[in-house]
Fold Phospholipid-transporting ATPase.
Amino acid sequence: MQREQSFELGQVTPVSPTNGSTRNRDDHRGPPPADEEDGKLSSALDRDTETSADPRVSAEQRVIFINRTQPPVTKFVNNRVSTAKYSIVRFIPLFLFEQFRRWANVFFLMIAMLQQIPDVSPTGRYTTLVPLIFILSVSAIKEIIEDVKRHRADDETNHREVEVLRGDNWIHVRWKNVVVGDIVKVWNNDFFPADLVLLSSSEPQGMSFIETANLDGETNLKIRQALSSTSTLTSIQDLVQLFGTIECEPPNKHLYEFNGVIRQSGRSPEPLGPDQILLRGAILRNTAWVFGIVIYTGHETKLMKNSAIPPLKRSTVDKMTNVQILLLFGVLFVMCLICSIFNVLWTKSHADSDWYIGLEDHSYNFFYNLLTFLILFNNLIPISLQVTLEVVRFVQAIFINMDAEMYHAETNTPAMARTSNLNEELGQVKYVFSDKTGTLTRNIMEFKKLAIGRDVFGTTENVEDSVLVKSLRDGHKNAHLMREMLVLLSVCHTVIPEKTPEGEVIYHAASPDERALVYGAAKYGYVFESRTPDHVEIDALGTRERYEILTVLEFTSARKRMSVIVRDPKGKIKLFCKGADSVIYERLDNNSGREHCDMILQHLEHFASEGLRTLCLAVAELKEADFEHWKEMYHKASISLQHREEKIEEAANLIERKLKLVGATAIEDKLQEGVPDTIAALLQADINVWVLTGDKQETAINIGYSCRLLSQGMQLLILNEDGLDKSREAILRHCEDIGVNLEKQNELALIIDGKTLTYCLTCELRNDFLRLCVSCKVVICCRVSPMQKAEVVEYVTKYTKTVTLAIGDGANDVAMIQKAHVGVGISGVEGLQAACASDYSIAQFRFLLRLLLVHGAWNYSRMCKIILYSFYKNICLYVIELWFAIYSGWSGQILFERWTIGLYNVIFTALPPLAMGLFDKPCSSDKMMQFPKLYKPSQSGELFNIKVFWVWIINGMVHSALLFWLPLLAYQHDILWLNGHDGGYLVLGNCVYTYVVITVCLKAGLVTNSWTWLTHCAIWGSIVLWFLFIIVYSMFWPTIPFGSVMSGMYIMVFSSTLFWLGLFVVPIVTALPDFTIKIIHGTIFKSLTDLIRESEIKKSDPEVYRGEPKNSANRCKRRQKWVCQPIQSWRPFFGMLAVSFTFTIFKSGKQSMANITTTY
C-alpha cells in the first residue's frame, strides 16, 4: 500500500495565486501586474500592518461598543428608512427638475414664456402653456400616486416592533428607534430590523436558518452560525455581562461579503464573516429565536445600499429620435429666419403703396417677428410625443408580463419586463451572449460517473450492486484511493442534511453540483449523515465515522476549487480538495502526486465529449506542527479588516499544494427544453449566438453540437495559447486564412479558453481578435471568469456598434447582463441575482425566441410608426402656417383658431398613434415564430433611420402644401355659398383643419397592418371627435364668454357645398400618391413580410413563402409576361380594407396565386 502524501510548509515557496485571487486571474497566469518586480509578487500577507498605520483607513473602520453607549464622536444614521422619491416640501422643485431635464419640455416652456410677451404670440398666451401644464399634471399625478404608495410602505416598515435589551429587560421598540449597538431578539418568521451580528440562537451551536428572497431572490434557506464564544449567551444574564467591541468594515452594498472582528473582554479577537451576519430584509426561518447586535442601521444597511437606481439604458431608437429632433430644431429656426427676412422685405416693398394699413419700416421688428414665428412653428416638435411613448411602453411591458406563451407552469414563473425603456431594443438584437449552465442547461445535476486510476464506475440503484463497492470489499489494488475519494465526496462540502419524518435525508446545498456529489457518494454507500460547526458524520458502508472540521476554504468562481481540512477518525490531519482540472493539476506533487495523471486526463476528455461536467479530486496529509503554524497565519489573515480576501487567498495557496490526485467525477446537466430549436431559429434570424462558460473546452464544444449551435460541417478555430506572442501569431494566421472574407460572416466557429482570452483582450491584440470573432458565425469562450464575460460583451458592443443582449441565470452573469444593451435574466436554480439585475426576466431560454421575434419585432415596428407618424401629423398642420404666411404678408397671422391648434395633439390626433403603438403588428405571432427571417427588417433598422425619417418629414410637407393650396384654389374667388357670401379666413382655416384631420387619420390607416375594433375607434373616432368639437365649440359664445370668433362656425362650414366636395376630394387626392406607392411596394417590390401577411389574409399555405424575395428588377426580367405586360389582362385584388391595407395583383384564370407568389 502506498504511503500517504505528506505536506511540509517549509518546503513550499510562496507563489502567486493563479486561480481566483483578487487580482482577477483565472486558472492561468496572465500578464504580470504592475507591482510585480523581478518575478516577485507583493504579498498581501506582508501587508498585515501597513493599513493600520494609515489613519485614513483606520477612520473608515466602524467600532461598536457592546453594552455601552456609543461615543458621540461617531455619529451613526438612525434606523428610519425612506424609499420615497419626494416629500411635501421637495416635491415641486424635484419634480420640475426631473421634467425639465428633457430638452423638449424646456423648449415648450420657453415658447410658453415667449407667448406672454405682448404683441408677440400669434396664437394667444396660453395655447402652449395649457397643453404643457396638462402633460406635466398627468406626470405629476402619476408620480404622486406612486410616491404615496412608497410612503405608506415606509411607514408600515418603520413602525414595526422588535424586542430590544434595555437594562435587564426586553422592551418593544419601533424599528425606526433601533440604534447601532442595540442587542435585539428576533423571533421565528420575523424580519430582521437592521444588519445584525448573530450572537446566539435557540438551536445548538448557535445555528440559525434565514431566507433571503427579498435580498437576492433565492428562496432556499441559508445557514448562519454564531461564534462558539457567543453561542452560549442564551439568557439576559449572559447578555448583560457581554462586554467588548466589534470592529467591522464601513457600510457597503456587498451582500455576500463581510469583514469584522469581535474583541470580547478577556478573550482573544475572533473573526466575523458572512456566516455571522443577519441582513435587514431577510427572514428568520425554522429557528425559535436569535440574539443579535446591531451594526448597520437605516440607509447604511446592505439592503438599502443596494437600492440605488441602476444606470439608465436608452434604446437606439430613442437616441436617434433625439438627434433628429435637434436637426428639426435647426429646420424650425431656419423657417423662422426665412419668414422674418421675408417680412422685412415685404414691409419695405409695401410701406408706401399700402400706407393705409399703417406699415412702417422698423428694423427692430425683425427680432419680434423671429419670436413670433418661433412660437408659430414650435409645434413642429410634437409636445405629446414623450407622453405617448411612455404610455405605449408601459402597456407593452404589461403585454410581455401577461404573455401566456412565456409562462412556465412548473415553477409558476411568468416573463417580467423590469424596464419598459428597451422594448423596441429587443427588435434590433444582433449578438446574443449566453451563459451555459442554468441558461442553456437545466442546472439540475445528476451524478453519472466516477474515475479512479484506469477504472470508470457508474451508478446503480442498489448500493450492493455497485462495482465500486464490490471492489472495495474485495481489496482492489486501488481500494485506498476508492475509499479516499468517497470520503472526500461525503466530507468536502458545505451541504446541510435534513431528515424528514419518514427518515429520508434531504440535502440543502448552495449549488446543484455539491448536492449531486453528495448524492453520488451515497449511491456508493458513503452517506453524509449530520453536520455541526465542529464535525461531520458519515455512514461508510454501515460504519459511522466522524471527521472533525478544522478549516473550510470555500469555493468561489474565481478560485474554482474548494478545500476542507479535517481530522479523520485515526487522528490524521488531511486536506481534501476538489476543483477544475486546470486548478488541481498545477497543485499536484511532482514526485508522488501524479500517479494516474495521464489516465485521468483521458477520462476527463471522454467525459467532456459526452457533455458531462467534470471535477478533479485530490488529497494531502498534513503534519500537526505544519498545520498549527499555517493555522496561525490563516487566523491572522481572517481577522484582518483590510485586504482580508486577498490574504486568505494567499494563505490558502500555501496549504493547497503538493496534492495527490485521487480521481475525477462526471455530472450530467441536461439541456433545457427547446434549446436546440431556439438557437437554430436565432441563427436563422441572423442573430449571432456566443456562449461564455466556465466549463471545460471539450464540454462546451459537445454542448455546442447538442444545442445545434455548431453543425457537423462547420470548421472549428481553436485558440489555446500560453503567451501573448503565440496568441498574436494564431490570431493573425487565422485572419490571413480567412482573407477577403474577414469581418464577413463565415461558416466558422471560434473556440477560445480563458487563459488565451486574457491575452486577446489586451490593447494591442483586441482589435485583431474582434475582427476574427465577427468573421465567425459562432464563438464559444471556455473557462472564463465573470469579469471576462463582461469585458467580452463590452468590447464587442463598442466594436460592432450593434445591439447586444446578454442572458444568464447566476450571480456570475450579472456583470455581463449590465454591460449589454439588453440584459435578460433567467429565474433559475442558482437564484434570482441575474433576474433582479436584468431588464427582462424569463423562466426558460426558449422563451427568449418569443421575446425577440414577437415582442421585440412588434414593439420596434410600433415605436417607429409612432415616432414617424407623430412628426408627420404635426408637419401636416403646422407647416400650413408657413404657406399661409405667403398670403398674409409674412406677418405671423394664424389660419386656425388658437385652441384648435393647441388641442390638435392632445385630442384630435392623440388616439391613432396610441392604437398603432399597442395593437399594430406586421404578422401574427405564429408567423413571426415560424419565419425567423421576419426579424431582419427590425434588426437592420429598416423601419427607422435617417433616410426614412426625412422621407416622412418631406411627405408631411408635401401633404401640408396640398392640404392648403387645394382648398385655397377652390375658394380663390371667395365664393363659398350660393348667395355669394364669404366667411373670412377662419372658415377657410376650419375647412383646411378638417381636411388635415381626415388626411392624417387616413394616413394612420394606410400604415396600419393589423386592425382591431379599438384601431377603428381610434382612427375614425378621431374624425368624429373633431366634428363634435366644432359643433359644441361654435355654440360656446355668448353663453360661455370664450371662443367668440368661432360663434356659429359649424353652420357656416357645414352649409357650404364646396366644403363637402372638398371633404371627399382633398384628402383622397392628398393620400393618393401614398396609396399608389403602397400598392407598388405590395406588388412589384413585395417584401417577405408582405408575402407572409398576404398569406395570412388569404389563408393560403405559407410554405410557398419560405424563400426570401429576390431583386425586383431581376424578377421583372424573368416575369415580363405578367409584370411588365399591359395590365388589361390583370384583375385587381384588394384585401379587405378593414383587415389590412395589403394589396396584390394576379392574372385571372391563367396562374394560381400560389404559382405567382412562388416566383417571389
About this structure: The first strand starts at residue 6 and ends at 7. Residues 1-59, 1104-1160 have pLDDT under 50 and may be disordered. The radius of gyration is 37 Å.
